[in-house]
Amino acid sequence: MRYMVVGAGAVGGTIGGRLLQGGHDVVLVARGAHYDALRRDGLRLVTPDSAETLDIPVAREPVRLRDDDVLIGRELGIPAPANEVLRREANRSAREQLPPGSMSPRALAELIDAHAAAVSG
Predict the structure, then answer these.
(1) Which of 7, 35, 85, 89 is an S-S bond match for 111, by CB 3.0 to 4.6 Å?
(2) Neighbouring residues of 110: CB distance < 8 A, sequence distance ≥ 6
(3) Coil, strand or helix at 103
(4) 80 Cβ partners below 8 Å, 6+ apart?
(5) Is the pLDDT of residue 12 over 70?
């Protein structure tokens, strides 16, 4: 299974980075200068526990889909349960003054489960 994250900003980059760290096949989709920076410098993922630069595949537009691809991105109409997880984590990050896009591993797992359930259901 490959995860294609459309929109590699704070949230999309965090999701894609965490998936990559977990051993998953991931492609980030970014445009313009953001694409150039990711391609040149990699993805800088900063969490409360670590800071790491990831060499993550990036594309300017969604690449040709495979049967086992999972698309993630707000432009795609994220299912309501996944949206709730994202909204809750954004509010938590703001309250706790965490870096933008910070997400607990538990919340990321909830997000992936909610998205997978919506796609397969």
Answers:
(1) 85
(2) 85
(3) coil
(4) none
(5) yes
Helix, strand, coil percentages (3-state) for the chain, rounded to 5, are 45, 20, 35
> Beta strand 2-6 with 69-72: parallel, antiparallel or unpaired?
parallel
Q: What token pair was written down for 64? A: 């040709």
- Contact predicate 31/60, CB 8 Å: yes
Average pLDDT over residues 6-21: 88
Segment 87-112, tens digit of pLDDT: 666 666 666 665 555 556 666 667 66
Q: What DSSP line would sit under 10-67, residue for residue?
A: HHHHHHHHHHHHTT-EEEEE--HHHHHHHHHH-EEEE-SS-EEEE---EESSPPPP-T
Average pLDDT, integer, range 6-16: 87
Which of the four pLDDT bands, split at 50, 70 and 90, describes residue 121?
Answer: low
